[in-house]
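Subject: sequence -> structure tokens, single chain

Hey, anyone have a minute? Need the predicted structure for the following. Not urgent.
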Amino acid sequence: MALLDVARRPAYGRAELRRLIDPATVAVVGLSRNGASFGARTARNLMRFGGRGYGVNPGASELHGLPCFPTIAAIPEPVDCAILAVPLDSVEGVVGECAAAGVGACVIFASGFAETGRADRIALQDRLAAIAREADMRIVGPVRYHTENGSQQGGGGRDGCAGGGAGRHGDPARVGGVTSVGGGELLPARVGGAAGG
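Reply:
Had a minute. Here:
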């Protein structure tokens, strides 16, 4: 997707971002045994997540406290948000698998896409955007940075898709947002509405 497209598109509403910022199910694709990896760190964050977490690793049945399945399609319930802890060369295939499985959103940690300025990498990022548009699937990234849901009851906010800890405020906020760094997309969330709206 051309970066100018973001400026022309209206802000997404809460309903359009729900599976990203308030997921019931999260899968970490590319979850490895390496405890220092992005995937493992995300899995540990999911221990504080109120929903259900899964790992995708064809060589394990459980890693870092998460039940694992060989593919995203093998997970026995719909996945709201997939966190892609895979290298750049694997991202397009995994995004396609997520789209085919009906995943609601993908968060991409990998870098080296349009932010490099290389024509082939810009084309790759455009293909990711095309897959997402066709499937009505949200993407944060490449080079995922942060999502925040300020309307979480009892915590005043949490990192929606990565299952981060509760915010510091006691009352649910009415503001949320999704940001990305590098060449990735910024998904503006509508603010000022009712916390549940």
